[in-house]
């Protein structure tokens, strides 16, 4: 049951994020983002040089092309464009991204560009982050600048993984501003990001005559741990709204359906939390929803929900299933969850635009090969193959899924794991910055050569 060939015109890519690969955090006029500030005060990991992509991107893009990828996900670092969170443009930052996009196009690797990938300007954090509605309009101004300036880009994503960002910032506290257990702030930030996304979609359609825009959500399906337990099933319904459906409704429908809002209000009230949704918000969301030209879904794992309460009341907690294999970081390996989620959103959101799996991959604790040879990552090939198989199964049943981006093109800096969790198709020796091919890159190349009609 492994993938033998890819559909013709399939988007076959790998994904990166500016702050995770670029390094050069103080170079060419770049401003300070929330990670620069946080890591300078809490030196958990050094974000320099990361994978030194800022200087080595042409080598990495030609590797992507050589191993058969026809697309790459990149993100723009907001503070390279507007270092001081005002409207003063940093031309060196702008030029870097022009050079990068030109290199992609010359190598026939289509750039899919994310405007915000977990890297808010520090000055945004200091003025209330997404919770301050003026910052939503700052984001719209930044997006409009990019749409006008980077006309060579025709595939845009607004914000990456809204829920992972808000949860890291306001529930777990792993992301700046490191607030813990604040459900009001987390869900308000998510709603405000959905509003920001919607405003940017409307701006995109006013400015750009061609191209597509979308949003990227990390969708993590929940399944009742005990199918015969009403309590597990009820907790799972609430978990699904909390983790997936609230955001899917906001982005793809431009409204929160009655049942969605009822369950979210219930979760908020039993956690003594509340959010504000303005009527104008919903009008803007409603106008923008049908103008999404694509939808990005990041999938890593699924969870099995038991009714026993966890950190957030009302959404149960995650069962530890010893019948499900896990990664070295304890993440359930459950390829079927990708298929189930694709089928579910295809059924529940009829006007769904083309779907891209914008991240899927496995972090491994890999060592450099002895003789500088090819690194054997069969575990990653198995993981990717099993998930790609589920994607193609959903597609064969009519789901409009048109592409797959592996997380990640190369080993990179991780927000919470530093340099220890390697996801790349290419191994990076962070001392020498030498790249070493892994077997999964050869797997990509082989499949790329099979692009025939499936
Ligand atoms: C990690 C995570 C990240 C995310 C990505 C989210 O280990 O830090 O896997 O790499 O997957 O940044 O879009």
From TrEMBL:
The active site is at 359 (nucleophile). Keywords: Glycosidase, Hydrolase. It holds the Pfam family Glyco_hydro_1. The keyword Plastid does not apply. InterPro entries: GH, GH_1_N_CS, Glyco_hydro_1, Glyco_hydro_1_AS. It comes from the Bacteria. GO terms for molecular function: 6-phospho-beta-galactosidase activity. Its EC number is 3.2.1.21. PANTHER family: GLYCOSYL HYDROLASE, LP05116P. NCBIfam families: PRK13511.1. Belongs to the glycosyl hydrolase 1 family. This is beta-glucosidase. It comes from Lactobacillus colini.
């Amino acid at each position: 049951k492994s993938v033998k060939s890819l559909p013709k015109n399939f988007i076959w890519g790998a994904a990166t994020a500016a702050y995770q690969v670029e390094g050069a955090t103080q170079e060419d006029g770049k401003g300070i983002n929330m990670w620069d500030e946080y890591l300078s005060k809490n030196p958990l990991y050094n974000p320099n040089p990361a994978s030194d992509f800022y200087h080595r991107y042409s080598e990495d893009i030609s590797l992507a092309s050589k191993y058969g990828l026809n697309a790459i996900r990149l993100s723009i670092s907001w503070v390279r464009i507007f270092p001081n969170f005002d409207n003063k443009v940093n031309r060196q930052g702008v030029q870097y991204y022009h050079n990068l996009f030109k290199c992609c196009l010359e190598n026939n690797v289509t750039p899919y560009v994310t405007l915000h990938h977990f890297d808010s300007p520090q000055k945004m954090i200091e003025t209330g982050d997404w919770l301050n509605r003026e910052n939503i309009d700052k984001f719209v101004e930044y997006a409009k600048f990019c749409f006008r300036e980077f006309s060579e880009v025709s595939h845009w994503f607004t914000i990456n993984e809204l829920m992972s960002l808000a949860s890291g910032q306001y529930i777990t506290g792993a992301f700046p501003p490191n607030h813990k257990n604040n459900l009001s702030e987390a869900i308000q930030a998510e709603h405000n990001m959905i509003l920001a996304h919607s405003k940017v979609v409307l701006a995109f359609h006013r400015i750009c005559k061609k191209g597509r825009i979308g949003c990227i959500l990390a969708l993590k399906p929940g399944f009742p741990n005990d199918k015969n337990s009403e309590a597990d099933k009820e907790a799972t319904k609430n978990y699904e709204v909390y983790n997936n459906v609230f955001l899917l409704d906001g982005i793809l429908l431009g409204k929160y359906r009655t049942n969605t809002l009822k369950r979210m209000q219930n979760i908020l009230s039993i956690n003594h939390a509340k959010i504000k949704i303005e009527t104008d918000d919903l009008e803007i969301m409603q106008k923008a929803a049908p103008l999404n030209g694509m939808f990005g879904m990041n999938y890593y794992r699924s969870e099995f929900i038991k009714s026993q309460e966890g950190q957030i009341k009302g959404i149960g907690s995650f069962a530890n299933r010893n019948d499900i294999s896990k990664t070295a970081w304890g993440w359930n390996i459950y390829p079927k969850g990708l298929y189930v989620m694709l089928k579910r959103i295809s059924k529940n959101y009829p006007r769904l635009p083309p779907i891209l799996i914008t991240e899927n991959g496995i972090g491994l604790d890999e060592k450099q090969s002895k003789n500088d040879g090819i690194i054997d990552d069969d575990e990653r090939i198995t993981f990717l193959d099993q998930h790609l198989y589920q994607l193609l199964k959903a597609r064969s049943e009519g789901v409009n899924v048109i592409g797959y981006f592996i997380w990640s093109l190369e080993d990179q800096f991780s927000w919470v794991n530093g340099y220890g969790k390697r996801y790349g198709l290419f191994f990076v020796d962070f001392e020498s910055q030498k790249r070493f091919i892994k077997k999964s890159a050869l797997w990509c190349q082989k499949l790329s050569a099979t692009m025939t009609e499936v």
